[in-house]
Structure prediction request, 90 residues.
Amino acid sequence: MIALGLRYSPSSSSPERVALASQWVAAAEKALILADWNGRPQARSIQVVILLAHYWHSVAEIDRVVVWVGAGVRIAQALGLHNSDKAQLE
Prediction:
């Protein structure tokens, strides 16, 4: 969320803000790995993945957007969110 805020701030082209946004994105990706997002799917992981996809879209990294959107779909399916009658969030 902070990386997106830095990205859309009025002086988003500032090299310091770009570097700081990159650090926040790297931290979010590392936190997902530490939370075992792929092995233990959680609703929170979907939220982070959506924010990461949005960030990568804002910097025109479409390949990364596709990867993160796909990961979000996999997590949602693992949680059973594709079955509307079984959809239960934590």
